[in-house]
From TrEMBL:
SUPFAM superfamilies the record matches: FAD/NAD(P)-binding domain
Keyword terms of this UniProt record: Signal
Domain named Amine oxidase: residues: 36-286
Native organism: Acropora cervicornis (Staghorn coral)
Protein name: Polyamine oxidase 1
Length: 288
């Protein structure tokens, strides 16, 4: 019996020893996410002489929401596809596009044909001009309110449009509203925040087969070995002096600092456990 007890203790000790994961070599900085934000942060650190860092990416590729897929013997973008405010000469993305000689086409949203559910043309040039005037005034109003925080603090875009004399009360008017507000902000005018609106500027559509991510590949050409893919983060434990990050594989990475580039949606979903929880003011900011 004594021998069996010793064997049991030994088996238990071995199980605990081999089941536990010790932290990897401690780094100065961990960057969580290899999308544009993460890669840009890594590039900035590297250029400032901070080279003791790692980038952890949960997907099998760099780029985050910027990625391509094959379709009809071509490559199409599954995420970001446009450069906004491309009419500004100092736009850094335009400078990168020119540097990498990417093929692109200016977007012309004023040329369109509208058809109804029977296939008949329903384009209304007069109504489109009326909408364009109301939309431009709405965006200017939103930009001014956002800068000056004019009371009441905020209101939906629908309220702003009504103040400007526009009501989306017909299918055609709703379509025009959708083409600018839903398309740009991802929600309808009833939900869109007026104070967060602003003039969109010109757009340029990147159709280069090398993909939108070609804008950023040079960013990490000096440190490709510092980016680890397939590292899905499940837990972040942080304190005043260190951070420990645990992955789905049970690997623990430790550092003095961590920069989390996860979207608000990921953090709100609780896919990643934070220890301790975020303070209330940060949690509240997700919904504002």
């Amino acid at each position: 019996r004594k021998m069996e007890t010793v064997k049991s203790i030994l088996v238990l000790w071995l199980s605990l020893s081999f089941g536990a994961s010790s932290p990897q070599e401690r780094k100065k900085v961990l960057i969580l996410g290899a999308g544009v934000s993460g890669i840009t942060a890594a590039k900035t650190l590297f250029e400032q002489g901070v080279t003791d860092f790692l980038v952890l990416e949960g997907q099998s590729y760099n780029g985050g929401r910027i990625r391509q897929a094959s379709f009809a013997e071509m490559k199409v973008e599954m995420g970001a596809n446009w450069i906004h405010h491309s009419d500004q000469d100092d736009n850094p993305l335009i400078l990168l596009k020119n540097k990498n000689d990417l093929t692109a086409t200016p977007s012309n949203y004023s040329r369109h044909i509208i058809k109804n559910d029977t296939g008949a043309e329903a384009t209304n040039t007069h109504l489109f001009k009326e909408w364009t005037v109301a939309r431009d005034k709405l965006f200017k109003l939103g930009e001014a309110r956002g800068k000056e925080d004019i009371p009441p603090r905020d209101m939906p875009a629908t309220t702003g449009l009504k103040k400007l004399g526009w009501r989306s009360d017909t299918p055609l008017k709703k379509l025009l509203s959708w083409s600018d507000i839903n398309f740009q902000y991802g929600v309808g005018e009833e939900e869109a925040s007026l104070n967060k609106m602003g003039a969109a500027g010109e757009d340029t559509f990147i159709n280069d087969q090398r993909g939108v991510w070609s804008l950023y590949r040079d960013f990490y050409s000096n440190f490709p070995d510092k980016i680890l893919v397939n590292q899905t983060v499940t837990r972040i434990k942080y304190g005043d002096e260190s951070v420990e990050v645990t992955t789905a594989e049970g690997i623990i990475y430790a550092a003095e600092y961590a920069l989390c580039t996860f979207s608000n949606g990921v953090l709100e979903s609780k896919m990643v456990t934070l220890d301790p929880d975020l303070p209330d003011w940060k949690e509240k900011s997700f919904s504002e």
